[in-house]
Design goal:
Number of helices: 7
Strand order of the largest sheet: 6-7-18-9-14-15-16
Radius of gyration: 47 Å
Strand content: 15-25%
Distance between the termini: 78 Å
Order of helices and strands: HEEHHEEEHHHHEEEEEEEEEEEEE
Length: about 475
């Protein structure tokens, strides 16, 4: 063992100062030295060669070898504490210089071993016990402290594991969310591309129509110009004739010339140019108006970080259903892990807000609001006492949050939830005719989040409940 220790200390010794490494650096030749020793050696040698093999270093300022440093520091600390512990042991073992034998008694009041011969009378009024009993009691206490430390370490490891799971999940969230963002923008880009092509096609169509009209008018004008040119040539030829010949033929030429001169002058028709204002005027606004038909607004967005592992959310985070298998999700503080519930992503601490939820024929659901501090990990009821104000359906009947049956003339397919935070009211309505169903009244003191819970359904067509796009928040 001693040989191994000596070998380790030799491995951790600097070849310049012969002491244990301090901030060791390693050269490309694999030799290591204290950083300060190497710099002093280089300054004296006036080169950057290795002190052992004389090979030139490729680095002016080598980086500290932290693994070697940790090992050297550990050995240095162990040597230092080992010597001090030896001194302490000697101090404990030798309690009295006059009576160097091993002590037999321990004073609990002064928390130390005492000499049976010299000090026993001094400690008569103290709580003195045999040293074996004291050691046993103190070891038991230390074992309890050890158990507490081990428990603390286990808890830290559990939290570390959860953080590791959360880190891995965030990577999956990155890829999934990035994919969905790209898909949404691709849809918008496709719409804009199609709209661009449509408007460019309309522009080209108008240009083609206007071009044909102008060509037709130009052709007619060109024919008229040709006819006039022929008449002009005929008149000019007539003017060149001799008297008798002129008098015999001028009449026909004059009649033709006067007939053409009496025709109305050609006019430019209006609207020959492209209607640029029609194509460019408020272009972005008109495209945006048309785009609104392609996109939808949801007043509530579900927060996947709060969803029970068995729940499945739609890609646009507006509908939820109870899946067949439990997903591998991290147990982050926001997540509901006891009940199949999910919260909205935005909470409300003032004002009026409303949204509609389509429940269809789903056999089991809970819809309402929950306070931010609602217990997401342990036992709770869907009641105001536990911070949930809701309307729920199960076993073919409707109940409010305080366990009272709510009578309905017909089954609810859709529910309107309305919050008036300042007045302390959570109300439920039948959206078709705004028939009032039930109102919870409470003085709210913290932020409220939309709350949804669903149970399993045998009918695949009715497994989802979704937030409707037709209602927007009332601010």
């Amino acid at each position: 063992m001693a040989e191994k220790v000596a070998l380790l200390e030799s491995y951790l010794s600097c070849h310049v100062c012969s002491e244990t490494f301090r901030d060791p650096v390693s050269l490309s030749c694999s030799h290591s030295f204290c950083s300060s020793c190497l710099q002093k050696f280089w300054e004296q040698a006036k080169n950057k060669n290795c002190p052992i093999c004389k090979r030139k270093s490729s680095k002016e300022h080598p980086h500290v070898n932290f693994r070697l440093k940790e090992l050297a520091d550990s050995v240095a600390w162990r040597n230092k504490t080992g010597s001090s512990e030896t001194e302490k042991v000697k101090e404990v073992e030798v309690v009295c210089s006059k009576h160097p034998e091993e002590p037999k008694l321990f004073c609990k009041d002064e928390d130390r071993a005492i000499c049976t011969v010299c000090e026993f009378s001094v400690h008569q009024n103290h709580k003195v016990v045999p040293i074996e009993q004291a050691v046993s009691d103190l070891k038991d206490q230390l074992k309890c402290d050890l158990k507490s430390l081990q428990d603390k370490r286990d808890k830290c490891k559990q939290v570390e594991k959860k953080y590791s799971e959360m880190r891995e999940h965030t990577k999956k969230q990155l890829l999934s969310t990035e994919r969905q963002i790209r898909a949404e923008f691709y849809k918008l880009q496709q719409f804009l591309k199609e709209e661009e092509e449509s408007r460019l096609a309309a522009l080209r169509e108008e240009e083609e129509h206007k071009g044909k009209t102008i060509s037709r008018e130009m052709k007619r004008i060109q024919e008229q110009i040709s006819s006039l040119s022929d008449s002009i040539c005929a008149v000019e030829e007539e003017l060149q004739k001799h008297k008798v010949a002129f008098l015999s033929t001028y009449k026909d030429t004059q009649t033709r010339a006067r007939a053409q001169s009496s025709l109305s002058d050609p006019q430019l028709f209006s609207g020959a140019l492209i209607d640029v204002a029609k194509h460019l005027g408020n272009l972005s606004f008109r495209v945006w108006e048309k785009m609104k038909e392609k996109v939808h607004f949801s007043p509530v967005i579900l927060d996947p970080n709060t969803a029970f592992p068995c729940l499945c959310l739609s890609d646009d985070l507006t509908s939820v259903r109870d899946g067949d298998t439990e997903q591998q999700l991290p147990d982050n503080p926001e997540r509901n892990t006891k009940y199949a519930a999910v919260l909205g992503s935005e909470g409300f601490s003032s004002g009026k807000h409303s949204w509609e939820v389509e429940v269809g024929d789903h056999p089991y659901w809970i819809v309402g609001l929950a306070k931010e501090s609602v217990d997401r990990k342990g036992e709770r009821k869907a009641s105001p006492k536990d911070g949930i104000w809701c309307l729920w359906h199960g076993d073919g009947k409707y109940m409010n949050g305080v366990g009272q049956t709510v009578r309905m003339k017909k089954s609810l397919q859709r529910i309107r939830v309305q919050l008036d935070y300042d007045r302390g009211e959570v109300s439920f309505y039948h959206p078709e005719d705004m028939t009032h169903i039930y109102t919870h009244r409470h003085t709210f003191t913290e932020k409220l989040f939309p709350f949804f819970s669903v149970g399993k359904s045998g009918d695949a067509k009715t497994t989802d409940i979704r937030i409707c796009h037709s209602e927007i928040s009332l601010r």
